[in-house]
Amino acid sequence: MELNESVKGLSGIGEKIFQTLQKIEISTLKDLVYHLPRAYKDFSHIKKIGEARFGETAFFEGKIVSQPTVKRPKRNLEITSFQIADGTGIAAVDIFNQFYIKNNLATGNTLYIYGRLEHRFGKVRIAVPELYFKKPEEAFQPVYPLTAGLTQNMMRKFIREALRVMEPVELYSSSFLRRYKLPGIKAALKEVHFPESAAHIEKARERIVFDELLIFNRMLTLLGDESRAQSCARINECSVQEFERSLPFELTNAQRRVMKEIMDDIEGDTVMNRLVQGDVGSGKTVIAFFAMYCMRKNGYQSVLMAPTEILARQHYETAVKLFPENEVICLTGAPNAKKKDEMRQKISDGSAMIIIGTHALLYGELSLKRPGLVITDEQHRFGVKQRAALLGGRDIHTLIMSATPIPRTLSLVLFGHTDISIVDELPPGRKEIKTYLIHRDKYDAMVGFIRRELSAGRQCYFVCPLIEEGEGMEAKAAKQMLEEIRKFYPGSKAALIHGKLKNAEKQEIMDDFSKGKIQILVSTTVIEVGINVPNATAMVIMNAERFGLAQLHQLRGRVGRGGFQSYCFLVSDHQEAYERLRVLVRSSDGFEIAEKDMQLRGCGDIIGTRQHGVSTLKAANLITDVELLTETKEILANMEKVYPKEYQMITEQAKRQLAGKLLEIALN
Ligand code: ADP
Ligand code: MG
């Protein structure tokens, strides 16, 4: 059978299943064999409870240490609960309605459990557990993305059958395959679905990812050719110096540099497509306003899209200080429909020059008289779609502001035809946060140090990974922490904030903390972005080894916001985590930290494992496959000469994909 034939020809696929498969975009044999496992259950390695990270899915082996108990909270729901132990820790397990399994559980039995280690409601548990009484035979089992009506077993069967009856198309000559050490496509497809070992999975995946990224890079070059041919708002006579005079502070060199880069873009005759990256607090907002200032001066309107209403509001307040108030519009601020219509009127007749709103509000709803620029602030998805909708196809300059630490090496490749500016300097007066690793031996000294900070009138944060002490876990619990803190610092007021509190309660505690009525805030990780208490100078993070570096960096960013020297204490007794944690001691550069995190941990946690919305990429992961991304980009650069046949094939594939998915490709 041919790759492009319908899967209906396969045994076991009738009309109903065919329709179900279409829901996950499988209609041809090609779609089916390229429907790759999103993961593999790794039965080849047994993980210890005490060594797994929270959130990690793994294969555990343990003995049942508590007599299973049964609860029936609803008529059709029966929950059987027990605990297993493996010498390094204890974990609770709940199973739902699996009657035959329940009857085989007894204290002392050995069990294998595939599931995700979590801490919830104060306990360590294995969530979504799959129980095995014997160790499974295969070392790896594929896990496919599914939809209702399909099972893993069905997918395995269909794919096995498809691979048997059809012949995949090899894009490359054997000399090309040898040159780049790639397995043939047929072998690769077989191994990716039915692997013999982890090494086989890796090789097979690499081949498939290689193809995807080569085509992807070709798509980017095709697109780049197009965007260069366009026309858009032409700007002249803008000056950074003049703009700076309207500001209450002096710009940093980094800010000036980025503004010049923006000016060069918009004064030329190409469309600006620029990503501005800078750590939280590096002063990106003023850069955005400079770009809007240039537009306004030349009679063009600008749109600023913020991720939340609070941020939109904040931008609005800054904007009215820099621009005539009647030219600034904040769409989220409209109290009623009439007012909103008025705003729309001002946007379409061109009297509003600076338009601010949330992504949701702006999406596809506006008609601008003379649009020049769209700025997306703190958006993780880069809004090609919004941009297109907003403009109805017109060309427009775009600026994306992001504090998400996308590692430099990655963004340079990923945003091949997007230019990047990096704000690598903080406004003056901010002192570097001194960061220390605290082992048990130093704990008392740290407690004493913080006492001195408190008596000098400062405030501090204690962050713990858990709410209550989990059985068998060493993690410091926030509640217990609070008790301890009250004993340590009887003269100070301490309060606990955690995710289970109501919003109003959280808000009240936060307000009290920011007014200084509370000196010590003990919390789980709910102290998110946006909390700004300049008087807080110490951040203590318990069990720091449990957090990712990028997350620790974000937490640390809560202090050092005023003129006082600030401190961050990473408390951990896990020597094996020290190498990783030392990155934070040495560096305060969010990008460097993200890059190190990626190297040390593999990937994943930085922007999420699957890249947002890159639907042309099924197998490739733009974070972890960054090397292949670079490699294929380089290969492509010389391919037309050296491998003209292959180049032709890749170009055809790229064009075909572009035609269908123009708006959804990587920059979305
Ligand atoms: P972010 O890059 O996180 O968006 P902001 O633009 O919100 O940062 O800036 C953080 C704070 O720093 C704001 O209060 C802003 O007014 C201030 N700021 C920005 N640039 C400077 C500067 N050059 N000098 C002093 N303060 C500045
Ligand atoms: Mg910002």
From TrEMBL:
User: Tell me, what is an example of a GO biological process annotation in this record?
Assistant: DNA recombination
User: What keyword terms does UniProt attach to this protein?
Assistant: ATP-binding, DNA damage, DNA recombination, DNA repair, DNA-binding, Helicase, Hydrolase, Isomerase, Nucleotide-binding
Domain of life of the organism encoding this protein: Bacteria
Q: Name one GO molecular function term.
A: 3'-5' DNA helicase activity
Return the Gene3D superfamilies for the record: Nucleic acid-binding proteins, P-loop containing nucleotide triphosphate hydrolases
TM regions (residue ranges): none
Helicase ATP-binding domain: from which residue to which, for each copy?
A: 265-423
Give every Helicase C-terminal domain span.
Answer: 442-604
InterPro entries documented for this protein: ATP-dep_DNA_helicase_RecG, DEAD/DEAH_box_helicase_dom, Helicase_ATP-bd, Helicase_C-like, NA-bd_OB-fold, P-loop_NTPase, RecG/Mfd, RecG_dom3_C
Q: In the Enzyme Commission scheme, what number(s) does this protein have?
A: 5.6.2.4
**SUPFAM superfamilies in the record, alphabetically?**
Nucleic acid-binding proteins (SSF50249), P-loop containing nucleoside triphosphate hydrolases (SSF52540)
Name a Pfam family for this protein. DEAD
Give the catalysed reaction(s), semicolon-separated: ATP + H2O = ADP + phosphate + H(+); Couples ATP hydrolysis with the unwinding of duplex DNA by translocating in the 3'-5' direction
What's its job? Plays a critical role in recombination and DNA repair. Helps process Holliday junction intermediates to mature products by catalyzing branch migration. Has replication fork regression activity, unwinds stalled or blocked replication forks to make a HJ that can be resolved. Has a DNA unwinding activity characteristic of a DNA helicase with 3'-5' polarity.
As for family, the record states: Belongs to the helicase family. RecG subfamily.
What is this protein called in UniProt?
ATP-dependent DNA helicase RecG
Species of origin reads: Christensenella massiliensis
Q: What is the lineage of its organism?
A: Bacteria, Bacillati, Bacillota, Clostridia, Christensenellales
Designated gene of the protein: recG
